[in-house]
Amino acid sequence: MLNQIKGLHHVTSLASDARNNNVFFTNVLGLRRVKKTVNFDAPDVYHLYYGDEVGSPGTVMTYFPFPRAGRGAKGVGEVGRTAFSIPTGTSQAWLDRLATFEVDGIAQDERFGEKRVLFDGPDGDQFALVESDDDRTPWTGNGVSKEIGIRGFHSTDMRLKDSGASAELLTFMGYEKLDTKDNVTRFVMPDGNDAKTIDIEELPGAGFAAQGAGSVHHIAFAVENRARQLEVREALLDTGYQVTPVIDRDYFYAIYFRTPGGVLFEVATNEPGFDRDEDTAHLGEALKLPSQHEHLRAKLESYLQPLEG
């Protein structure tokens, strides 16, 4: 069993409009845009990162907004809902706020004794705000008060036809089974970061998901540094998983592999962080390009959709 993984690092999804995506996460949810860069494999598409003040691991929601992309189809073999942590007792404040912005899909429920506010993003993305005792410091620069501000990720839901093989994988990665209720099993990372929970929702009769706008592309798990990442990679290879070589993503190093249930996992380093090429006070303001695409700057700046205005 591994002990290097410490919980979630980031979640990456697909969108259909960069400006609408930016407005939703900064104006409605009050997160900070900590990086404005491009998809390394498709540089004519943004890669936008939203999180706390510095983009701490376990707080960062990221998006590839492909212009006019069709919506994905919900189903199994994907992360169906991404949950953020909010302070205990703040559900009503968030219900009121989301209603003010006419957000779709607003509802309430409880899971494993925790109150949740459910809602949809601009592309039908499914989210939850979960009341929890979480002392992380929220970003408050976008008009959401410290008293109700999002603390970072709480958990993600993996929707699968059968949970067995993926449950074994999570256990191998260091997660422990906490509880099962109905068709949902909760796993937590002991001594992990504050984004330490994964729920598996078993839906044996559901069809398979098809990716598009509103779909989660992958979820990333945090390791402290490249040495720990290489240990994880070697262990996964020894277990029979096909794992990519280490890829430099400028703000972290990444490896990827596909889970038995079809979800794409990444293992990302906490180093070097989002302040490697921008001062903390100005994170996410300028368009930052990886070195291999810097020669395209003039073209990209004229082509990419302005996020403000």
UniProtKB/TrEMBL annotation:
PROSITE patterns, per the entry: VOC
Start and end residues of each VOC domain: 7-132, 152-270
InterPro entries hit by this protein: Extradiol_RC_dioxygenase, Glyas_Bleomycin-R_OHBP_Dase, Glyas_Fos-R_dOase_dom, VOC_core
Coiled coil: none
PANTHER family documented for this protein: RING-CLEAVING DIOXYGENASE MHQE-RELATED
Name of the protein in its database record: Glyoxalase family protein
Annotated source species: Yoonia litorea
